[in-house]
Amino acid sequence: MNHFQFQNGTLHCEETPVSEIARTVGTPFYLYSRATLERHFKAFDQSFGDIDHLTCFAVKACSNIAVLNLFAKLGGGADIVSGGELFRALKAGIPASKIIYSGVGKTEAELRAGLTAGILMFNVESAQELERLQRVAADMNVTAPVAFRVNPDVDPKTHAYISTGLAKNKFGIPIQEAGELYQQAAAMEHITVKGISCHIGSQLTLISPFIESLVKVKAFVGQLNDQGISIDHIDLGGGVGITYDGEQPPHPQEYARAIKDELGDLKATLIFEPGRVIVGNAGILITEVQYTKSNRGGENEKKFVVVDAAMNDLTRPSLYDAYHRIEPVMDQGAAHERVDIVGPICETGDFLARDRELPRVEQGDLLAVMSAGAYGFTMSSNYNSRPRVAEVLVDGTSHTVIRERETLESLINGEHIPEYK
Ligand code: LLP
């Protein structure tokens, strides 16, 4: 359930009319609901309330420090994949002791930053990363807490670009080769073996792939224990899907029940890295219609609604052919027509929706692109020299700009014209 609902034909975010925010903030902008963010975080976290666990929000899904701060206040940790995300998580008030660091390409500077902060663990993805971490930790005279991210070779049955747990994907260490690395790590002076991690993909709508990989991880943890290597943190990654358009992903409670059943008497702190399931339906993108036009060619007349948001603001439709529901902010009961909703960028791939039935809209109307809270703003760019849009957080009847719209000046920040001789 989310707090974006129509009241008297006008879209509201909690108790605030979206059109009112558009009037003061301008368009386009991302809009988040505090009540929904908190509700979704708690729904996930409390599903595991009866067992030892830590919910580390996947910062990449939505990294505004105001959003991260809400989760910090609810006891959440963070799953980060860069030094930038570490910086944000700490700024937002997430304790280092609740931060885990994933990703295949951590630089030396990033490892150093994680060690300086004192994070909970590094999810190491290769033998070379382990060696580098040992060297950096030795240099700093500290001990690095490590989990290995294993690749269980399980098909998550999701979009190919966001599937990560197959042998052909770049992620993790093949589970059959990981034992050797655990042995090496256990013998390293500046490494402490802390856990194991595994993340098989995103937007999963089935529980079975999660369980399939847990079965493999559990068997492997048993082998490690037999070899005298104890694993006290098991990180099961993120990946529970959401409804964009009729998908029926498992409810977090169902997911939790299945995990707990499979876990049996295995004793460890469970770590989760949910992103999309918490923020996806807690944020929308508001855009204004600039023009409507039709291109008549043969019998295929095509109608276009040109809006002021584009693929640089929300890249998911162009990149993954992803579906986002689109609603007029003022529902005036207009007749429907089939349109493409496109942005101003000079590429045919710049669309938010294609061949979509939409109530007839006119110049100046506002549209809401739904389910845009995850991988929306965080994947936005300045392509076509478009300043990145504002982010706004609603709390009941009030709203706060939690990230200002970029200015033209900010577009060229740090650029220099050389002084030619
Ligand atoms: N943990 C790790 C190691 C990950 O790589 C990811 C997502 C997550 C957790 C969070 O997964 P979630 O709970 O959000 O499914 N840009 C794509 C999604 C990329 C996901 C990358 N990894 C999209 O817009 O669909």
Automatic annotation (TrEMBL):
Binding locations of substrate: 276, 316, 320, 347, 375
Catalytic activities: meso-2,6-diaminopimelate + H(+) = L-lysine + CO2
InterPro entries according to UniProt: Ala_racemase/Decarboxylase_C, DAP_deCOOHase_LysA, De-COase2_C, De-COase2_CS, De-COase2_N, Orn/DAP/Arg_de-COase, PLP-binding_barrel
Residues the entry annotates as binding pyridoxal 5'-phosphate: 239, 273-276, 375
UniProt domain Orn/DAP/Arg decarboxylase 2 C-terminal: residue ranges: 30-373
Key words, A-Z: Amino-acid biosynthesis, Decarboxylase, Lyase, Lysine biosynthesis, Pyridoxal phosphate
GO biological process: lysine biosynthetic process via diaminopimelate
Pfam families membership: Orn_Arg_deC_N, Orn_DAP_Arg_deC
UniProt-listed Gene3D superfamilies: Alanine racemase (3.20.20.10), Lyase, Ornithine Decarboxylase, Chain A, domain 1 (2.40.37.10)
Assembly, per entry: Homodimer.
PANTHER family in the record: DIAMINOPIMELATE DECARBOXYLASE, GROUP IV DECARBOXYLASE
Family under the similarity heading: Belongs to the Orn/Lys/Arg decarboxylase class-II family. LysA subfamily.
Record-given protein name: Diaminopimelate decarboxylase
Organism from which the protein derives: Candidatus Desulfatifera sulfidica
